[in-house]
Amino acid sequence: MTANRAAFDRATLAFLFVLIVVTAARIGALFYVPLGLYFDEAQYWMWSRAFDWGYFTKPPLIAWVIGATTFLAGTDAEWAVRLGAPIAHMIAASALFLLGRSMYGAWPGFWAGFGWLMLPGVWFSSSLISTDALLLPLWSIALLAMWRLVNTRAWAWAAVLGLAIGLGVQAKYAMFYFFLCTTLAAWWLMPVRAALAKGRGLLATLIALIVIAPNLIWNVQNGFVTARHTASNAHFDAAKLFNLDELFEFIFGQAGVIGPVIFVVLIWALWRAWRRSEGLSTEEKFLIAYIIPPFIIISAIAFISRANANWAAVAYPALLLLVTGTLFSSAAGRRTLVIATLANIAIGAAFVAVIASYPAIANQAKGVRTARGWQETANEIARRAAVQPGELPFSAVMVDDRMTYFELSYYWREARRAGAPLPPVRMWLLHGTANNSAEASNPMRPEEGGRVLVVHLTPAYLPLVATDFTTFRQVEHLTVPLGGGVNRELEISVGEGFAPQPRDAAFEERFRQQMGID
What we know:
Mean pLDDT: 91
Strand order of the largest sheet: 2-1-3-5-4
């Protein structure tokens, strides 16, 4: 078979067709997603207005991508902010197609790439911009480069490997799992050790470090704020260790991300691999090495604290390839693979239908509720922040929740560009130090506290907020309908003479009492 025929055989053409159709459909669907930006998307958009080598809670790649997509689109509408997500999953699917083709053949490669596009988690992830959406294509490229390095010993693949790892770290620090997985693969497989020998592994590491270095320097200059925030996400509490419920929720939550049939097949494939560990192929050992470490580590975190299902996302490319390769080896397996993919298509289509057409059902999910109605909420707050006849203007709008801060900042952008006299949005500093990006970038300042419109998304904070003002009065309760009988409830107050109480032990005790914390 000639090189051209190999590159454009039926499997490749079929994959290119579904890749283009699915990606185009998902990009088109961004124009009709009935959800506003999630607050973390709005936060990333704010970061993208000023490029840096790092931000309070995340490495910089997501801000760079949003900056690029909104610049190229000529708008920062929701669809432009999210545009990088379906494109990123298109890249991930392409890398997995190439890797599956290299490992198992052309048609297994097709099913690996197509299967990625149809994962329930990818259906969801393609509709919003997140660090996982940017991490996974870079992980998949690194996995492809590592496998090609094993088989070719080509220095070019070592360079691609280092570049993908470096950029992956700039997307999310979970990319560091790749070093641990590669260590396991090298311990288990002589071909991996040989591929990394003679300086090839050193070259990949040096390139990765060069790409990572600016963010490391930024973290040093900023007290390792991003790294500390990432570590704090586990929320270790000595009084609440050993949570079987959290462990089971994490493990079985994977079925919702990769699909129930693939989840069952994965458990079976790993069990079968355990039973015949001496008879595993090089491909199986390689893929298992890139599945087990993140799953074991995150499962341990879930057991002693908590873990979200997506924290093990870096294992998904290898597990999908393992399942695809395992199933494609028999006629019954291929039928199961088709059933698994059809099941995931049905789940994804149901997700889209519910989000688009059934707000009463969709709003039962907290994640959906938090993204609805923010344009309307911002408009209502803007009306109350406007100068009223016979009253002094507000010097600031203070919010007590970072969600409100970022959503107002985004949904007031057009009004500000049009010259609307909206007060600056400021974040109430709950504790003595900033614990999130909003508190770090724009805390409420005494010099701006002459007359402040206060918006409470957390009513329990209200008595504490009141003590930070010389005079303070509650004005009204604001209800914003989100559809399906669900509302967003806000309290509106006016404070004058902002003079925050010391965030000392006495304040912390009042905070704990107010929140009912033992």
